[in-house]
Specification:
single chain; mainly alpha; Endonuclease III, domain 1; 15 helices; globular; 258 residues; binds iron/sulfur cluster
């Protein structure tokens, strides 16, 4: 992970970061959170995985629906006897073609299979064991930098490992769903996921711990999959319509149609 000032791309970003938040800005994310919570209710509590299992899950889950991602973890355990949380050696030692067969239900299994095997081999080579439990001793930014040294592991995956696993650290997971909703709401200037996370973290109240950040991500993701979908957002019934420039534009255009 870069430092904040390194990551921001413009002097305006750095200046904005240093300026204190107005009360309205400080309530931006909590307000969205309250509206989503009122509409959808509390998300189910997450069953926390150990850091390595979460890393494997996040790698396989890219561009794949959640039920399929959960199923593929069970497929790995079924296909490679002895494999499971704390024991992923049978997957590491399997052939790429066997891994590809086991993960066939996710998107791009031909790309994910060699990447997964290579990642498990590299972790073993660097640490002398196939476990990420040692990361619990590190600061969050160090953990994320360590994870992101591996090919194919970006900020989204490193955030998921630190926030969704038993590490339970503060991070906001900006996947494609989360990014779409935040961009439509114009909460921060449009940017890639890594920059968006940095910018959004400035609006996250100090009092939001790892569980709260996870709850926020779950609510925004649920909203992205329910109403704020990729190709046909349902803005009329959306609980965020009053504060959403995109939704207001969409609904005004509908009213103007003959
Ligand atoms: S109003 Fe429409 S575009 Fe805005 S968040 Fe809701 S569904 Fe998405």
């Amino acid at each position: 992970m870069s430092t904040t000032t390194e990551l921001f791309t413009s002097p305006e970003d750095v200046a904005t970061f240093r300026r204190p938040l107005t009360p309205e800005q400080a309530d931006k994310l909590p307000h969205i959170h309250r509206l989503l919570l009122g509409y959808y209710g509390e998300p189910k509590p997450r069953e926390l995985r150990d850091p390595l299992s979460q890393l494997i899950y996040s790698l396989l889950a890219a561009r794949t629906k959640t039920p399929t991602s959960n199923q593929v973890m069970r497929e790995l355990e079924r296909s490679f006897p002895g494999a499971g949380p704390g024991h992923w050696e049978p997957v590491r030692d399997a052939s790429v073609s066997d891994i590809e067969r086991a993960i066939a239900i996710v998107t791009f299994p031909d790309q994910k299979a060699p990447r997964l095997k290579d990642l498990l081999l590299q972790i073993t080579a660097r640490t002398g064991a196939l476990s990420l439990d040692f990361l619990a001793r590190y600061r969050t930014d160090k953990i994320r930098a360590w994870l992101e040294q591996f090919e194919g592991i970006g900020p989204q995956v490193s955030a998921a490992v630190v926030n969704f696993s038993t590490l339970r650290r503060r991070a906001l997971v900006i996947d494609a769903n989360h990014l779409r909703v935040i961009q439509r709401l114009c909460v921060v200037p449009r940017a890639d996921a890594a920059t968006t996370e940095e910018r959004l973290m400035r609006f996250v109240p100090e009092t939001w711990d790892a569980e709260m950040l996870d709850e926020d991500h779950s609510l925004v993701k649920l909203h992205a999959q329910t109403l704020c979908t990729f190709d046909s957002p349902k803005c009329e019934p959306c609980p965020l319509l009053k504060i959403c420039p995109t939704g207001q534009r969409n609904t005004n255009e509908l009213k103007l149609e003959p």
